[in-house]
Automatic annotation (TrEMBL):
One of its GO terms (cellular component) is plasma membrane. The chain crosses the membrane at residues 12-31, 43-61. The keyword Cytoplasm does not apply. Keywords: Membrane, Transmembrane, Transmembrane helix. GO terms for biological process: Gram-negative-bacterium-type cell wall biogenesis; peptidoglycan metabolic process. Gene3D superfamilies: HUPs (3.40.50.620). It comes from the Bacteria. It comes from Chryseobacterium culicis. This is DUF218 domain-containing protein. Residues 88-246 form the DUF218 domain. The keyword Ligase does not apply.
Amino acid sequence: MKFLLDLLFRVIQLFTEPYFLVFLAIVIIALLKRKNKRKNLRIGVGFFAVVMIIFIGNGFLGKLTSGYLQKSYVNTIMNKNKTSQNPVIVVLGGGVVDFDNTEKLHTMSYSRLVTAYQLYHEYKMNNLPCKIVISGKGRGQKSEAELFSENFKKMGVSETDLIKEDKSMNTYENAKYSSKILKQMAPSDVYLVTSGFHMKRSVALFHTFGLDPVPQASDFIDTEITLFPNSYNAAFTFVMLKEVLGIWQVQLYNSLGLNG
């Protein structure tokens, strides 16, 4: 059953791709024309496609989606008193870029790196212990966990405070494998560091594996309402729509007992 649902959500995910929507509209119009269907119907399909492109490209849908995904986490940044005795910071990988045969963290990863370090530094300034669990394998020769670790050490984080979870390939596995490590450590607090648009789904998955992390959003994305559609608004809107779909998938799987 899970395999079929996975396949279904992959198909649905296509509808969050702008090029697929344009391609689908063209195909529908072409088929209607070939079968000599009413001209008004073809015009209607074309008009609907144009309206959707405008609605997505002018930033309106993006504004609504960004609020749904991120608003809950704006005031959670660094607002907890850093006095617990055995905290663990979990930072989720944001991707690896292989450019000219050199692997570097994706741009998105650096805000997560900085936010996790700021949390860690606060504890160390108060002479309190703190560990960082770095979660992510990625698809490069070096894992996300390894690249994060190299950067953390350059920033002054002790190697003994770094724990690499380098098996996970997606957010579900981030939560699954990190939870096994965390349950062995029995921390007083768990801080979860990832991007704001990615936080709601991440927290839901960590809840699935019995953890209640304190969300610490490292960055936020938003769109700007514009008179004319633009690619910036469209790109971020589709990124966020995928996250919304992912949240619905987590909720459905949890209700059916398919996660865990």
